[in-house]
């Protein structure tokens, strides 16, 4: 199984709190193991941990990490680093190489990314050559490099589970699911 960790750079607490939360939730929903936040915002970390607790899985979040230290440690431990940008090689050209690696760090920025990151990354990958959301770039990348369909993943230990339905909302709470399984 592929290990993917997302490193979020440049989080500006007042401006980026929803986007950074969405980066974490997207990473979790599409199969990443966790997110490293290169900024100090404990509330974001707590929110994502709370969502993971309710919706299941083993996603971790670490707050206030050193971006260069995390990248170097990742690489020293056999991992590869993909920096998502609108500059670099186009994603379709990078996908075959990205799929070859079992340990991948995906970097997404917010404000201007330091030039050092472009040098430290094994790949600078353009998800389109137009300005757009880092959440969209992450989602497209994770979907394209997935070993199986990430949209059908089952999350262990979920308190809440959505049941697909054509109309309306159907959410099973953990206690209802346990009761249903007991009666079947």
TrEMBL record:
Classification via InterPro entries: Alpha/beta_knot_MTases, tRNA_m1G_MTases_N, tRNA_mtfrase_aTrm56
Lineage: superkingdom: Archaea
Keyword set includes Cytoplasm: yes
EC number: 2.1.1.206
Binding positions (S-adenosyl-L-methionine): 84, 109-113, 127-134
Keywords attached to this entry: Cytoplasm, Methyltransferase, S-adenosyl-L-methionine, Transferase, tRNA processing
CDD domains: aTrm56-like
Keyword Transferase part of the UniProt annotation: yes
Cell compartments where the protein resides: Cytoplasm
Reactions this protein catalyses: cytidine(56) in tRNA + S-adenosyl-L-methionine = 2'-O-methylcytidine(56) in tRNA + S-adenosyl-L-homocysteine + H(+)
GO biological process entries: tRNA nucleoside ribose methylation
GO CC terms: cytoplasm
MF term (GO), any: tRNA (cytidine(56)-2'-O)-methyltransferase activity
Family to which the UniProt record says this protein belongs: Belongs to the aTrm56 family.
Function: Specifically catalyzes the AdoMet-dependent 2'-O-ribose methylation of cytidine at position 56 in tRNAs.
The protein's assembly and partners: Homodimer.
Classification via NCBIfam families: PRK03958.1 (NF003048)
Protein name: tRNA (cytidine(56)-2'-O)-methyltransferase
Organism: Methanimicrococcus stummii
